[in-house]
Specification:
- The chain is of the alpha/beta class.
- It is built from eleven helices and 14 strands.
- It is globular and about 55 Å long.
Length: 310
Amino acid sequence: MAVMEVSSHALQQHRVRGLDFSVGGFTNLTQDHLDYHGDMEQYFAAKRRLFTDHNSGNAVVNSADPYGQRLADEFAAQTVGDTPTADLFIEIVKLAQAQSLFRVDGVEFSMPLIGRHNVANAALALGMVRALGVTLEDCVKPLASVTPVPGRLEPIVEGQPFGVYVDYAHTDDALRQVLSTLREITPGRLRVVFGCGGNRDAGKRQKMGVVAATLADSVMITTDNPRREDPATIAEQIAEGCASAAGADWQIELDRERAFDEILRAAMSGDTVLLAGKGHETYQEINDLVQPFDDRAMARSILATLKEAR
């Protein structure tokens, strides 16, 4: 069996032409890649190709997403959601710092991934394998031992008295999901460092600023793959969103390493720090130069220095 994640670009560019999938799944659709697709309807049209051009009849969708519901209505897809009307009904039992406990159609699951968005994605995957004839009960043990994806709410632990997570969140919806997850498990202040990529969809920059300032207590705007754009201009556009939301304290530090150092030094016991935007990436793209930069390695280095100083 082969499992593929097929991007909207791949569907639009016919990169999977000739392939039919035994089952197709749809998680959600939020603003991204509009520099390529133009608008959300065209973006959705590209995603829809998975079900019109490549699917053999089995479709599983997240009906909590409005675009997912549109697909469910059009293709009579199996639905996954947190409402009793869904074909697979999700119930959250407990969200903790290192695991999520939940039920799908009454079957209890535990997995080493945190957050409601990860529960929704896991439930969709369960729906897809069930469409292939696997029972939910057969999935309990494999899901409990699943390996977390690098750079997706990846915890960084160096003995510090506060939580540190690295996540790839680089859209307003992804940032909202991750910050909402961390808010549920943070007794202290929630702090976030993030930026936005250059030469990409600029329309999400202010939106990400609004999300960060609304859900976090402290926001540090920094550089994240500015490519050929001026990092200061990108940061100012994000800051406009922060300023429009009554919420967090925010500031700009374009040097990503210094931004990390400052926010980690400010963190107190019980706080949580989110280093967002790059996740698994090990580089920065600045003026056509690819420079080494790994959020996880940088965080560990700074935390180790702070530990020695204590």
